[in-house]
Amino acid sequence: MGRIAEAIYKPARMRTVEDMLRRFLVIVSGAAFGILLATAVTRWHPAWSLWPNRPLDRDTAYFRKVLELVAQNYVDAKNAGYDRLTRAALEGMLRSLDPHSEFMKAADFRELREEMDGRFGGIGIQVERRNNHVVVIAPIADSPGERAGIQRGDEIIKVDGESIEKLGMDKIIDRLRGRPKTTVSLTLFRPIMRQTVNLSLVRENITVESVRDAHLLAHGIGYIQLTQFTERTGAEFKLALRRLLLQGATALVLDLRNNPGGLLDAAVAVAEPFFPPGELIVYTQGRTEDSREDSRAGAGAGWARLPVAVLVNSGTASAAEVVAGALRDTARAVVVGETTFGKGSVQTVFRLREGEGVRLTTARYFTPGGVSIHEKGIEPQIPVTVAPDDETKLRLQRLRRDLTDPQDFVARFGFEPVADRPLQAAVDVLKGAELYRDRRRPPAEAAARPGPPAP
User: Of 76, 323, 339, 441, which is least packed with CB atoms within 10 Å of its CB?
Assistant: First the structure.
């Protein structure tokens, strides 16, 4: 019985071994096929893009190798730390793209945010360099500088006990600015009294207004000068425009000369009063076809119905060109002056760790008619060229409207005020437009002109 059982058992055992051998061969064959398949996929990777980060990994490894080589072998170890080398590489990488892309260290990124916000920590004084002296133009109202008694004409000699004689204006402004609630000491020379004044001031948040000047000219023509485009510019401009309309303005000169631009949203906000709701003001286009973004006038737009002349020059750039281009492209304004700078690119700001950031060109903007002004600028319909020397004088005159006495002006700047020919040309255009409109307007309509909406 046992033999029979043994005879029956042995063949069964042999079949089991054969099955195991067959399975083993199948497994080995599958593994070999898997290896071949993996090899094939690897070779086809550039076309199939199954490893999209492989070039990035390769180049990152290459950068790391060079970084280690420099850090370990450069003769001056102090200048070859990993942190310093990495940031220098980032700065060079962004700078190689275009003039407007940049890597910003924490201090630079904080300064950019302050500029875009229109606020900064400081003592609230406007200064200029004159005859190798840093002179106070005027303290800002209700600022630490005004409350401390700083006067127009005071000369700054020292900041925190150190002479500023050999410092550039950027360095001087950096020393005057700082975090709110921090203290800064000033040594001033007051020429009127011929005495030295020592002051200790506590910095506060200072707000810089984008609307530097807004007033009525002759013939009911309003004038607004915009110096930049920050987060507050739209609200400040609309408030100034409403006030001029309430004062009886029937036309407007918008002065964008030497305005370097700023935020695209602020440019749209400035243009909105002249566009009906929903109309295209500007659009941006990135690297892909589906990256277009339209900026249109909002629901409360279109309340400023009056002739407009926009003053521009070669210093008019970026967001200022958006406004000028949109108004010209839609025949809502006449552009007077010189061809603008031609910065038609959009920069997006990315926040990084440790308070640092990157400003990267991500798109270009186009006027409502699809015209790109990048590296071309906006050509004025009424060209008025100003000599460089006269342009410098005009810029000082626009900054110092507080000097109404010609003798004081000559004593301060050493020259007599020059005629602002671009402004005069803009006024002449608006006077002509007003005369033409009056001739075409029915008597009843001329007697009742709509005013601005309530803010």
Answer: 76
| Least confident piece of the model among 43-52, 328-337, 372-381, 397-406 | 43-52
Neighbours of 316 (CB within 10 A): 31
Above pLDDT 70, what percent of the chain?
Answer: 82
Q: Annotated catalytic, 10?
A: no
List b or e across 280-301, with b for residues whose CB sees 16 or more CB atoms inside 10 angstroms: bbbbbbeeeeeeeeebbbeeeb
Look at residue 229 in the predicted model and tell me its pLDDT: 93
Residue 337's alpha-carbon distances to 163, 190, 421, 426, in angstroms, are: 42, 40, 9, 9
Burial of residue 444 (number of CB atoms within 10 Å: 0-12, 13-18, 19+)? exposed
**pLDDT tens digits, residue range 234-285?**
999 999 999 999 999 999 999 999 888 889 999 999 999 999 999 999 999 9
Q: Which of 154, 255, 329, 420 is catalytic?
A: 329
Would you call 402 a catalytic residue per the annotation? no
| pLDDT score of 38 more than 50 | no
Q: Where are the domains of the chain?
A: 52-74+84-96, 119-207, 211-385+420-447
Fold of 211-385+420-447: 2-enoyl-CoA Hydratase; Chain A, domain 1 (3.90.226)
The catalytically annotated residue of 101, 210, 318, 345 is 318
For 201, counting Cβ atoms within 10 Å of its Cβ (0-12 exposed, 13-18 middle, 19+ buried), the class is buried
Q: Which of 153, 150, 211 is closest to 186 using CA atoms?
A: 150
Q: Judge whether 360 and 351 are in contact, CB under 8 Å.
A: no
Residues 66-94 have a mean pLDDT of 95
CB atoms within 10 A of CB 12: 8
Lowest mean pLDDT among 40-44, 176-180, 372-376, 435-439: 40-44
Task: Please name the helix (run of DSSP H) or strand (run of DSSP E) that holds residue 383, with its range, or none.
Answer: strand 382-383
Phi/psi at 134 (5° precision):
-90, 110
d(CA 414, CA 316): 27
pLDDT score, position 402: 66
Domain 119-207 homologous superfamily, CATH: PDZ domain (2.30.42.10)
Tell me the pTM.
0.73
Q: Is 329 a catalytic residue?
A: yes
What the block records as the tokens of 271 is 């243009």
CA 442 remoteness from chain centre: 45
70 contacts 88 by C-beta, under 8 angstroms: no
- C-alpha 359/C-alpha 112 separation (Å) is 10
- Over residues 446-450, mean pLDDT: 50
Please, what is the end-to-end C-alpha distance for the chain in angstroms?
111
Q: Which of 343, 345, 393, 420 is catalytic?
A: 343
pLDDT at 26: 45
